[in-house]
Amino acid sequence: MRVGMSVETGVRPVSRKRVRAGLQRRLEARWFLLFISPWLVGFAVLTVYPMIASAYYSLTNYSVLSPPTFIGFQNYTFLFHSPLFWTSVRVTVIYAIATVVIQLVLGLLVAMLLNLRIPGMKVLRTLYYIPNVLPMAATSMLWMFLFVPRTGVLDAALHQLFGINGPQWLSDPRWALSGLIIMSVWSIGSSMLIFLAGLQSIPDELYEAADIDGARLFTKLRHITLPMLSPQILLNLILGLIGAFQTFVQAYMMTDGGPDYATYLYSLSIYQNAFQSFHMGMASAEAWIMFLVILALTAAIFKTSARWVYYGGGTES
Amino acid sequence: MRGNPAISARKPIARWVMILVTVVGALIMVFPAIWMLSASLQSNNQISQYPPSLMPHPFTLEGYLKGLTVLPFVRYFFNTACIAVLSSIGGVLSSSLAGFAFARLRFRGKNILFVCVLSGLMIPYAVVMIPQYLLFKHLGWIDTYYPLIVPAWFGLPFLIFLFRQFFAGIPNELFEAARIDGCGFPGLYWRIAMPLAKPAVATAFIFHFQAAWNDFLGPLIYINSNSKYTLSLGLSAFTSSCDCTPWNQLMGVSTIVALVPILVFFFAQKYVLRGIVLTSK
After folding, report:
1. Are the C-beta atoms of residues A255 and A74 closer than 8 Å to each other?
2. Which ranges of chain A have pLDDT less than 70?
3. Interior CA angle at B105 toward B87 and B93, to 5°?
4. CATH code of residue A134
5. At what angle do helices A121-133 and B247-267 cross, to 10 degrees?
6. A115·B134 Cβ contact <8 A
7. Does residue A50 belong to the interface with chain B, where contact is any CB pair within 8 Å?
8. Is the peptide bond between B51 and the residue preceding it cis, with omega within 30 degrees of 0?
9. Alpha carbons within 13 A on the beta-carbon side of B204
10. How far is CA A17 from CA A20, A96, B66, B180, in A?
11. At residue A60, what are phi and psi to the nearest 5 degrees?
């Protein structure tokens, strides 16, 4: 571009070659804009404008039927004083911590097992991943079936195998959220795959050297596997958190937030406020609170990541 | 040593234990899906018996025959397919164009724009959901498929990222040679880059197809008429429409709802997995 600039200002005499290069650059820039124009228009209309608009709506009383009226931060203060809001926050935080731990621990364990070099491993990997492919609506329906109290598969298995009388699961306020958390075990597939890709990029020599030094399994896990996988742990941590905050279908279909708000996940509360009570302003405020929390959490995690994430040896890309 | 490097087991017994754990775990993971299939072939009478059994006895197709007619699920199947295919085509076209530009064309401020693309991955849908809804409402698009198809035609951040990565890996000499032969920028995209990008196109198409097929919140917000439901929405409506629970029908319909994504996964596994692994790079 610098070449093109000097053509325009004409301060220095330029060669014909340079003029052509300048024109070339400008032509290329024009094509660049043309090529990205669908995205650029979409970004402006479907992302930037809605973000500004929802930030504004969050400061208004807006019920769709009548135009929004500005009320300052009243939606926010109302939410912060609303017990129901804090219920949904509590439920979501518990759900997020539990599911992220499951994704990280179980995802990593399964990935390490699936990294064994045995014939037929491809089939096993497929089996572990299949649940992730199912539409969440079908998965929700299936787990409602498994969770049927007493005669359902889960309670029957608990009774037949361990002699335990299983809980009422989704219809018991003390167990409903646990039910959704147990169900999340069924979708460890994507975190597992990310870990697996990371494991496969760890050079064998590291383990061979450790073997020569007589390192034990746990030592190798602590000093080779975990440090080498730290970028994938970071990624899964952030993806897991974002996913947990946005979990919706299960809560909507299986429990509708109940019983007694035990599974009143944050996204469900936004949906209900927006499209069932038509409190668009309130719902926008809730959405923005969620967005800011996700941003703050991600920023905090990235800040600490310098201390525990190791980039190098084939994972720096 | 033919152990596994990550958790290498020097003793063969430990190795066998790990293999056993892996296999048992895999069976536990697929078990719910198998149970879904089995229950869909059982009679409701059998399902309500205790303890439940895995073998359908008697074997019956009632779950499908009745379940699929309670609501017009065949119609929902085509509705869903129409939305998923059309939005995937648009998503691949515009995302590959933008991905090509970001990978191969020079522009001042390109990097800032690319950060904007990636920021789209971080913004929760809830933040843009309400203004988008009001916008589409203003356009008279409520209860149509436009809000479910048109946004994809404006490019999807993840697919743009995927295409950029792919196009950036094509050797420069190919483009140089085409330039010397007088090929313009559209030609570089359409005649050089795209023919080479078939694997990326497949990955992107399948990735978005699955997402669109499985989408729930979008159709829930925008579709009101029964006849325009998607499969997921129909399944959800099915549960709330009856108080007794005909589980064999619900499992039959769930199986049908899950069928296409599973088939796509089996036949295009390599592309699906590549898309997910790419997120980790």
Report:
1. no
2. 1-15, 312-317
3. 10
4. 1.10.3720.10
5. 130
6. no
7. yes
8. yes
9. 31
10. 5, 60, 76, 16
11. -130, 165
Which residue range is the domain that position B191 belongs to? 71-241
Q: A138 in helix, strand or coil?
A: helix
pLDDT at B280 exceeding the cut of 80: no
The total domain count for chain A is 2
The DSSP bridge partners found for residue A60 are A70
Global pTM value? 0.87
Please tell me the predicted confidence (pLDDT) of residue B243.
Answer: 57
Query: Which of A183, A181, A111, A124 is closest to A153 using CA atoms?
Result: A183
Find the domain containing A128 and state its range.
78-308
Q: Are B49 and A153 in contact (CB under 8 A)?
A: no
- Please tell me whether residues A151 and A35 are part of one structural domain: no
Nearest residue of A to residue B29 by CA position? A128
Say if the Cβ atoms of A45 and B135 lie within 8 Å: yes
pLDDT of residue A2: 41
Per-residue pLDDT reduced to its tens digit, A188-203: 988 998 898 888 888 8
B105 touches A35 (CB < 8 A): yes
> Peptide bond preceding B195: is omega within 30 degrees of 0, i.e. cis?
no
Which residue in B has a C-alpha nearest to residue A116's C-alpha? B4
Number of structural domains chain B divides into: 2
- B162, B254, B279: best mutation site toward chain A, by most A Cβ within 10 Å? B254
* Cis amide bond preceding B58, omega within 30: yes
Identify whether residues A160 and A278 lie together within a single domain: yes
